[in-house]
Amino acid sequence: MPWKEKSVMDERVKFIGRLLEGESMSELCKEFGISRKTGYKFRERYVAHGLRGLADQSRRPQLHPHKTSDAIEELIVKLRKLKPSWGPKKIRVRLELDNPGIKIPVASTINEILTRYGIPKQKAKRRRFKTNGTGPLKDSHAPNEIWCVDFKGQFRLGNRTYCYPLTVSDHYSRFLLECEALENTSINSAWSVFERVFQTHGLPQTIRTDNGPPFSARTIFGWSKLSVWWLRLGIQLERIAPGHPEQNGRHERMHWTLKYEATRPASQNILQQQARFDGFRHEYNYFRPHEALEMKTPADIYKNSETSYPTKLPDLDYPMHDMIKPVDSSGGIYFSQNVRIQLSSALYGEYVGLREIVAGIWLISFMEHDLGYFEEKTLLFHEQEPIPPMVS
């Protein structure tokens, strides 16, 4: 008869007992319904281990030739605890760079190791968006074609004051050019940061921002004093649609990592927080592998701009215009001694050109940008060209 399901161990003990009393192996195997190979197996296990040898044995191999060593597992777990936001791919690349000649397991094995140690990867919730608003945004194909700029969002420090991190990154390489802990979002504070960044890295072709201050204002074309300065430097302006931060997705993703690794918990004061930002920026640029860069670091891709920051802005010239007028501190120009045209306070200190396109209607321009039209008869400024009255 075969082994009884509910008393397998008892049947094996009876089998061995009768075998030890001298009964035939062939007859016993036939009676218990097992093969002679199985019978000899249990006899050998009994001789080697006694009754313990008759219990069910694990089918797992005793040796694992491909098992990750304890030392490698320790390195994996240590780096994961040091960098909680890093996934298996980043951990693998970093360990390969830091330990040349040592075989590091693939990302899936690293994930299994982390799960076994009870520290699975912490993932951010992925949000899906439909882009709309200002039309298609340009893509970058080389460093310094587009810089992404934003304030990460204020948070309170340990001393109860607020910190406003201003961040600047290169769209193509993800290189974090600056992360400055500011006490406010004023134009003056941001201006000094950009001046330093321009002096260090040169000028980009385009700067992409959102529609908030100090990058934008409720003026002609949404220009602020800061964005007018960028125009004077020859930088093109690009804004995402209101309420659509996903259009600046690469920069926003960096913000998530910055928030997770450098602001929780916040430092006691602005100087201590800046030190953490500096450390994060160095690690993000030179140490942290990036999946979108084929696991290279941003520093492997980025190089400074060939367009250097000028020591002096060039004078504006309007050779095709009839008049050139300075913009006063209130954002206006004097068309004549008694006629003033209000434009934008963002243009204070700049010069605009005026050209009479038809009798009594003047086109007003700043650099290559047409601001609008001034009508002498009504003394009104129009963003669109007014239709002159028909002559009967």
Provide a descriptive summary of the structure in words.
With 392 residues, the chain is an alpha+beta fold. The protein contains eleven helices and 13 strands. A hairpin with a 2-residue loop joins strand 10 (351-358) and strand 11. Helix 1 crosses helix 3 (36-49) and helix 5 (88-98) packs across helix 6 (107-116). The N and C termini lie far apart (122 Å).
How is the secondary structure organized here?
Blueprint: H1 8-20, H2 25-32, H3 36-49, H4 70-82, H5 88-98, H6 107-116, E1 146-151, E2 155-156, E3 162-170, E4 176-182, H7 187-201, E5 206-209, H8 225-232, E6 236-239, H9 249-262, H10 270-286, H11 298-301, E7 323-326, E8 332-334, E9 340-342, E10 351-358, E11 361-366, E12 369-375, E13 380-382
Parallel strand pairs: 1-5, 5-6
Antiparallel strand pairs: 1-3, 2-3, 3-4, 7-10, 8-9, 10-11, 11-12, 12-13
Helix pairs in contact: 1-2, 1-3, 2-3, 5-6
